[in-house]
Every structure is written in structure tokens, then in C-alpha cells.
Amino acid sequence: MTDDATTAAGATGTLGYEQARDELIEVVRRLEAGGTTLEESLALWERGEELAKVCRHWLEGARARLDAALAGPGDQESGGTTADNG
Prior knowledge:
Elements: H1 2-9, H2 17-33, H3 38-77
């Protein structure tokens, strides 16, 4: 899978959240199972780090969208802050 991980690393930016999460789960499973060489383990770890970044990026984007939706149009017009009151 090292060759597959290397090939997929170039496509990391195009992965959806679910794809990245599922692949990350598989990477963690393989690392926990052991039986890989040091080189393979390092490659898996690096791939896992990249996948975690992709997941984090998607989650941060979703959080920003939720925050914007919860703020509503009235809050956005006033700058969205209430700290001026106190």
C-alpha cells in the first residue's frame, strides 16, 4: 500500500471528508496491527498526518459555515460582535 499511499498523497487536496476519514481509519488500523517495517510505518504515519489535516480543514470549514448561519443576517450587518455592550 505504500505505492498507493504515495499516489494518493498527490490527490489529498481533492478528498472529501468521508474519504479522508475512512482512509485515516484504515491507516490507524494498520499502524495498530503492527507487522510493518519501519519504513512502511513512517509512510503510514505521514499519510495519516496528511489525512488528519484534510479532515481538520473540512471540519473547520463546516464550523465556519454553521457559525455564519447561526449568526443570521441581522448579526452580520452589525458586525456580528456583542462585546461593545460591556
